[in-house]
Amino acid sequence: MVLEDVITAILPDQQLLHQLERRLLNTIIVAGLHGLHLGYRRFRAKFNMGWIAAPRVVRNQDEQRRLRIQGQVRLAWRQQCQARYRIRGQYSNTNRALERRIRLKAASEEDIHVSTKG
């Protein structure tokens, strides 16, 4: 390989060459992992799953209780929001909305048939 010959010509010291290779490889690996992590964070943000947080060690019970209450409040808020959307009939899932539309259409057609019979 030409590149290897060039590098050996510039860097005759073999140990230095290995060190450089290792450093380069580490940089590539770290950059790759960082890229993956960013992608994962973006994915989490897109689907509103929250950021990845390191598991926190909670020592005192007061903070533990506070965090538990905070979690319950968040859960209640989320459920309330979901209920509000459901009441309005705004389905985030398009399939459900489509099913609803089809059902409504079928029901209205049945009503028409009933009225023509009567």
Description:
There is one protein chain. This protein is mainly α and 118 residues long. It has a domain at 1-48. It has four helices and no strands. It is elongated and about 90 Å long.
Estimate what percentage of residues fall within beta strands: under 5%
3D shape = elongated
State the order of secondary-structure elements, H for helix, E for strand: HHHH
| Low-pLDDT stretches | none
The percentage helix is over 70%
Query: What is the SS-derived class?
Result: mainly alpha
Report the mean per-residue pLDDT as an integer.
Answer: 67
| Count of alpha/pi helices | 4
Termini separation comes to 90 Å
Keywords:
single chain; elongated; mainly alpha; 118 residues; 80% helix; 0% strand
List the helices and strands and how they pair.
Blueprint: H1 2-10, H2 14-46, H3 61-88, H4 94-117
Quickly describe the structure:
This protein has 118 residues and is mainly alpha-helical. Helix content is 80%, strand content 0%.
